[in-house]
Amino acid sequence: MENKPLFFISCPIDTYSGYGARSRDLVRAIIQLDKYDVKIIPQMWGNTPWGFIDDNPEWEFLNKYLWNQPQLPKQPEVWMQITIPNEFQPIGKYNIGVTAGIETTIAPGDWIEGCNRMNLVLTSSEHSKNTFINTVMQKIDQRTNQVLGELKIEKPLEVLFEGADIEIYKPLDKVTLFPELDNIKEKFAFLFVGHWINGDLGEDRKNVGLLIKMFFEIFKNKKDKPALILKTSQMGSSYVDREEILKKIKIIKKSINSKDLPNIYLIHGEFTDVEMNELYNHPKVKAMVNLTKGEGYGRPLLEFSLTKKPIITTNWSGHTDFLNPEFTSLIPGQLTDVHPSAANNWLLKESQWLSVDLGHAGTTIKDIFEDYSKYIDGAKRQAYKSKNEFSWDKMKDKVDELFTKYIPEFPKQVQLQLPKLKKIELPKLQKVEK
User: Fold this and answer.
1) What's the predicted TM-score (pTM) here?
2) What percent of the chain has pLDDT over 70?
3) Structural domains of the chain sorted by starting position, each given as residue range(s) with its CATH number in brackets
4) Could you tell me where the beta strands, DSSP code E, fall in 51-117?
């Protein structure tokens, strides 16, 4: 039996999260390369729910790779962590850090230090790569306050995009789920997918609040109105979380000076990939809209693009790697400081991200509703590009290419076989006669 290098992967593989999806796709690719003895150490991801593997039978094959012992059997030849870089720790003989990176213009100092602890760092987009490389800080001695030198990326850093499963994400002839959407009165709905996280109106990273306000303003008092479907949550899928989202929508609605407003529908809860693709393909879902201020990658945008429907989003950050501005509606804007209401240990208030051009965004949303057919050809071209250049299989090929380039050969343990020796016959002693 071939002695494969031991490859341990620490990641949030069993969580309902973006990093969980990234972990599952990447781990499956590494297993299928069949070059390593793969073991997985499941980790938490914030407060996101566990149990994805058991809830999704197609992923149950991962259970046999899970390592739940308190100790490693030995130092692994390869150690990989899929997480934010300040958590990177070099455990193996060769160490790989995988991260979506940051959505702004500056990476935190402890992220740079984390990257430098590894032998190789893989990030999801050219935007994230450039942010890491362009972040250069002074290293200060905390005791003496003296400048010790520069803090910057010193280890190899490569882009590994997040490939879409084109066996799941694709156009469907018939949608059987979401009968609730069948019953809404609108025939045309825009769809938003993403978390609604911290930040004042117009300052949260995904810009959900501003999207809602803009949608109300664009279509208020209009005879013919589209709907806006929000597939969103703040942290999890609890009843409390849903009520908080509804409360925030009502507050924005009350701020609009009109009684004649378009409808907004909330979809809340954890969905499988198959369910998400059914939602994307629902005949009343005509386009995806996301006025995001910054993306490390933007998986929903890629997956939705495979349905051959138009996309409206911003022309900045990770998703511009795969969205072609000729085929999709990429809205300009200007870089502005991260607002204190959205800043945290990772989204630094000294950094910047995009504030979308509201006039341009509003005009585009209105035009797609009123003149939908002129956007279809571009959407089909984008679907072709996504399918042929950003599939999971293409990502697996990239994994193999990068591992072949960077991971060294390790000495293989062989069984020591001693040569067989012939039995030596000693001469018999002769009795000496006296």
Assistant:
1) 0.91
2) 94
3) 6-160+392-406 (3.40.50), 179-389 (3.40.50.2000)
4) 78-82, 94-99
